[in-house]
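Q: Joint fold for the lines below.
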Amino acid sequence: MSNSRSDLSPDRKKIVTDPLRPSDHADSAPAADEGRDDITSPRLGPVEWLRWGWRQLTSMRTALVLLLLLAIAAVPGSLVPQRGADPNGVTQYFTDNPDLAPVLDKLSLFDVYSSPWFSAIYILLFVSLIGCVLPRTQHHWKALRAQPPRTPARLTRLDDHRDVTVSVPGGQDASAVAASAVETAAAQLRRSGYRVARYDGRGAFSVSAERGYLRETGNLVFHIALVGVLIAVGVGGGFTYTGQRVLVEGQAFTNSLLDYSSFNPGRFVNTDTLAPYSMTLDRFDVSYVPPGQPGSGQAGDFAANVTTLTPDGQRQDGQVRVNHPLDVQGDRVYLLGNGYAPTVTIRNAEGVEVFHDSVAFLPQDANMTSLGVIKVADGMPEQLGLIGFFYPTMDTLTSGALTSTYGDLEYPVLTLRVYAGDLGIDDGTPRSVYTLDPTGMTQIAGGDSGTPALRLMPGETQDLPNGLGTITFENEAPAGTTGYAGSVKRFASLSIHRDLAGPWVLGFATLATLGLLAALFVPRRRMWVKATPHGDTVRVEYAGLARGEDPTLAAALDQIVERHRPALPAPTDQSPPSRPASDDQSRPDTGKVD
Amino acid sequence: MPGTDPLLLDEISLLLVWTAVAIYVLAFIAYAIDLARRSDLAIKAKDEVVARELVTAGGGGVIDASPRPAASGTSSATPRYLWARMGTALVALGFLFHLAGDVLRGVAAGRVPWSNMYEFALTGTLLVVAVYLVVLTRFDLRFLGALITGLAVVLLGGATLAFHVEVVPLADPLKSVWLVIHVFVASLATALFALAFGLSVMQLLQTRRERKLALAASSDAPAPRRNFLQTLPNADALESLAYRFAIVGFIFWTFTLIAGSIWANDAWGRFWGFDTKEVWTFVIWVLYAGYIHARATRGWRGTRSAWLSIIGFAAVLFNFTIVNVFFKGLHAYSGLTT
Ligand code: HEM
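A: Joint structure:
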């Protein structure tokens, strides 16, 4: 409720302990110099202009407008795919909207959150914030040590006001009774967390008390912590790196730049000093909901079982699961994806092994129909390229096409189309290991080549077309295994992160939240207790004034009166609480909450 | 519950949920009648208590739930709240069915019942109603009853029709304590924002009415038509109460944001990536920060800040309806995405 804010301030003149507010804060009285902000003012020098501009930038209105602009500016990034979050989506967008996409790109709409206009808004906002918070901090620092303000002359003018008149017992001095009553009140107020100051004089004794400085402290902590969050994100991001690596069961990798398939270091990362450890994928676990149950075929409980080897020779077993990254030497290892990596051996016509590897096939659907590429660069008359599909549980559609109906290895089948010719890798052009561009090559198996595509199950060997040699789909299951369980290796796609920003961001965010709690819920209020001797009676007045939102003020005042009662002689006449009648209407809820 | 068929439990749960929706519809009707009758009674009460009018320029001003001598002194006080009382009783009854349906869904699934779009709506609306009922014990906000029950009927009924899915095992990324915390707190915040929204709407209506009243008093412009607004607190009191719900909601929302980031860091290896869901959570947070600022900015207190509260809640609802997009993103977790 706002009706007891500073527009009813007892002293018109600025009170030191009041928090400093921008001049257009709802609580600051429209200043006499407000007009000077307008263009009507006489000539302004450059310094005045600067001062004027700074005042505008650090005003409540500017902060508000910038906040709203920030909210609006963030929205387009949720409507258009962003390079940072969804690079494939951006590529797709360019394909789908060839005319529109370049225009949007010019407007940075695919990089909204690093765009000049978005940056401009938040940088201005934070400049405004700092410009606003610094003077307030300085002011608050002083206020923390200032005395509560002088007791207003007429407490009855305040909304929250109580009044008790007591008669002085025979033989006592009215002034002494009044003084001791105020002394007790001061002690009680101090005990309940108020800062107090005595103001006696002009035939009256009074104590002025104030509490809730924590409200402003919280506000300042909140705003400064936001700056902390921003800096932690900006600077911490520079020390952060992420790298990706695909590991097939049994494979190992060392944490060095060379061993990553992709690596994104922050600006300040020294890639020569990555924590030296190596990691082996021993086994990848996954479970499937059996057929006939709700969610049948759904895969879950993914777990990459790894062994890490640190430079000091320490071996440690660990598990990387979704939601449960593994901590290794300050890095965090995440599980990004998984799939099958069929092991294939190719021999040439002389029976010499020219290819032997477990090749990661990328899953294409929920039942793990997977696509992969095998490249044979040497040892054959011509280079060979094979494009393969792997079906862990193969079935035939009515159209004759093959498909997988279940993610686990029930009836694993590998099919391969074979191309002969130039793979285009000899000139040094980087090619993805997951794609094959068959232009300029001759298809010799599958498709329209006249020879059917190769089709193998684990353990089977077939001849390559044109007498080129043989191909074997190795069965990786230990000898004596029945069924196909374990016949094909799995791979895990791991992402390794070092994040220096995270803990700092979390720290500042927590600080901001704590500050916010104090800023929003600690009531800031002034209380006065004043005792005036009149002949053989003493009039004791109690009054409270809210500084900011304070729905519980009236209740708090009642409590003070209640607690003070034993310190007084019996009242002669207790006038009913002199809360204005209209108060009941405009603040019906006061006193209800405590 | 070993031996109990989850499918059967879910079917019973659905039955309970539909019963709750039906009861909420009845509650909505009762509250609507209450609002209509309030205006009716306001006209009758006019002759009766002219004197009272003098101190209630802005309206009755009665938010306090405790019986007030001033209000009960008039003969019209008791019948006035009959329909509202019925509405509240129905909401409480509906809530029990709703709660039972929600709990049963959780039992059927063997986990917290807020893991997909349907369950999120189920638990989210449950919390909206719960917060409303709890708040009623402190403040008489029954004039928001029609809005709250209307919201519950549309969201719960709509989600049950459009999003109901069988219980299936949780996808891996959702197996996290943060799901439990993050989503629950977000729902709580939503409930508080909903109340703030309702109060802000009433505040705008009340402000318009007060302006007309003032105009009628100072000139011979026609007085505004009497309606239920007359029995509501004045615009200032409505604004202040809206603010108090909004700041509590804002704290919860701040927590939602932080908890979401922690979860994202565990699940995806980065605490913030401006994915759609994150963007909207952020936008909502900034909007409400703007609302709180507006309340402290000269010229923005009152009507303008009320609009911000309304826009903020509109964003919350928007965010809620694109949740399914979010979950789709997580379900495609089985394979390599890059
Ligand atoms: C990142 C931008 C900002 C955010 C998110 C933000 C958020 C908030 C929030 C949530 C509050 C309410 C808590 C409280 O009362 O302490 C608040 C209050 C306040 N903010 Fe900011 N703020 C921002 C920037 C600014 C700027 C630039 C200024 C200076 C012009 C400013 C001045 C204030 C003041 C004076 C209050 C106290 C309002 C009152 O008296 O109730 N803020 N802010």
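Q: Anything notable?
A: The radius of gyration of chain A is 39 Å. The mean pLDDT of chain A is 86.
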